[in-house]
Amino acid sequence: MAFAYTEKVMDHFINPRNVGEIDNPDGVGEVGNAKCGDIMKVFLRVEEGILTDVKFKTFGCASAIATSSMATEMIKGKPIAEALALTNKAVAEALDGLPPVKMHCSVLAEDAVKMAIKNYYDTHGINYDAALFAGLEEEDDHGDLIMED
Ligand code: FES
Questions:
Q1: The pairing of beta strand 50-59 with beta strand 27-32
Q2: 8 A C-beta contact, residue 38 and residue 108
Q3: 109 alpha carbon – ligand 1 mean position (Å)
Q4: Domains along the chain?
Q5: Among 36, 50, 90, 103, the one annotated catalytic
Q6: Residues 21-31: tens digit of each pLDDT
Q7: Is 90 in the pocket of ligand 1 (CB under 6 A)?
Q8: For the whole prediction, is pTM greater than 0.70?
C-alpha cells in the first residue's frame, strides 16, 4: 500500500540523523510493536542533566525511521525534562504530518525516548515520579513494549 509521505518524512527516512549506538550509554531504551514487529532502540549520553548525545537504531517502517530521526534531533542538546515532554504528536507535526494509519509508528519514538530516560534514572539511582512512565511497560493498543535490563 502506498502512502502520501511529506518531503520531511522522506528526507528523514532516506537520510536519517543520529543513526548508530553510543558506547557505554548513560541510558538505553528499547520498545517494540508486537503487531508489526518493528523495534526501536534509543541511546543517551547525559551530562549535567543535558542530553549531549542521542542515537538510535530502528528496525522498522519508513515512518518509524523518520520519527526516530526527528525525535532524536528534537531532544539532542536539550534538558531531560524537555525530552520527557516530547510527544509523538509533536514529532509527527515536526515532520509535517504522517498518514493517519502511520501515527502509531510515531508512538514508538516517544516511548523509546522515555524508556531510555527511565533506564538512565534507574541505573544512576535517581528518584523520579513513577507516573512519568505510567503505561510504558503495559501492553496497549500500540502493541507490547519491551525494555532491556
Ligand atoms: Fe511498525 Fe510503522 S508499521 S512502526
A1: unpaired
A2: yes
A3: 11
A4: 7-140 (3.90.1010.10)
A5: 36
A6: 999 999 999 99
A7: no
A8: yes
